[in-house]
Amino acid sequence: MTRGVQGDRQGGRRNRKAELAAAAAELFGRRGFHAVGVNDIAAAAGVTGPALYRHFQNKQDVLGFVLLNGIDALAERLAGPVELAEADPAAALRPLLVTAAEVSIEQRALTALWRWQGRHLHQGDQKEIRRRVGALLGQWMTGLRRLRPPLDAGEADLLCFAVLSVFGSVGDHRVGLPAPEFASLLASLAESVVRAPIATGSAAPAWRGGPAQTRREELLTSATRLFRERGFPSVSMEDIGAATGIAGPSVYRHFASKSDILLAASRRMSDRLRWGLEESLSSAVDASDALRRLARSYVDTVMRSDDLIAVYTTELVNLPERDAKELRALQRGYVAEWVRLLQEARPSLSEPAARVTVHAALTIVNDLPRTGRLAGRPCLAAELAGLVSAVLGV
């Protein structure tokens, strides 16, 4: 039986551990892992801080419990469709994808937790989550290769991880649709990935080059890498200086604070995305062509700015509110351009459906270059651009 994170009764007693986990999940999702303390979790569940330690050693244990339960729930719900897929992959495909979509939507908060807070887990929990997800993916890949026999193992990997990104994208936005419509749309987007042709060749447009590697640029590069790996609150100016080979106080000659470094990194990423958007629009013949060009541009920008895009999408909460508000508006404006073009290319799509579709496509590009098993694929840029086009339907 899957362990649930919802409060329930076991033999007439309240499942206090599950209640604590549910309270923690809500707080982690709303405030971020570092901003939540053990006493916050205890208070939200209506107990004292010491009472929490009867169930968990620390808040990392709580996070691990929440996420492992979520994976167990997904595996339990998918057991029937996966069993059917072993006998008839074609007949099982749609039920499998719809069920996975339903679970992703129902556990939207947990999906977001894994995507943005999973790096804070204990190493043992990270390994266990990868093991369980890997076992599930192994079943999917076996079914996929039976459904599409020409696929090799690497291509099946690519498509299965892209499908995971489609389902995981619901944790990146708050677009609302009626549950049946939402699940059907998400399943259709995942099916477009499953059936997508594997692209070949290079999809990288010309690049104008980055700034010269001055000391300031070295600091910016080191800081963004550390922010991505550890999270902004866990990195000090001394850490940034050490990673660049200079004394911590010397960092202040170039940046007044950590927030200034984060702001500089975020504005740089925003500028790169805006340049790619303008280039794509200026040379396109219609909305579909603009989206295909924009897909290639986005892939190239992300693959050349791996740390920057990770920081840009996860760490704005750590900026002063005025700066964070400015950058969130730029992010929304960028996505809105994709949505506008998609509705122009496919007028039957509602605005919410178009936004869900765009977020699914962008999440594939954000995720796959950071997936170790895929990062070394020689044609990954072309493959990603092809997957984006498949999801968008252009």
From TrEMBL:
Residues of the DNA-binding region: 37-56, 236-255
UniProt domain HTH tetR-type: residue ranges: 14-74, 213-273
Keyword Transcription regulation in record: yes
UniProt xrefs under SUPFAM superfamilies: Homeodomain-like, Tetracyclin repressor-like, C-terminal domain
Pfam families: TetR_C_24 (PF17932), TetR_N (PF00440)
Assigned keywords, A-Z: DNA-binding, Transcription, Transcription regulation
GO molecular function annotation: DNA-binding transcription factor activity; transcription cis-regulatory region binding
The UniProt record lists the keyword Disulfide bond: no
Annotated protein name in UniProt: TetR family transcriptional regulator
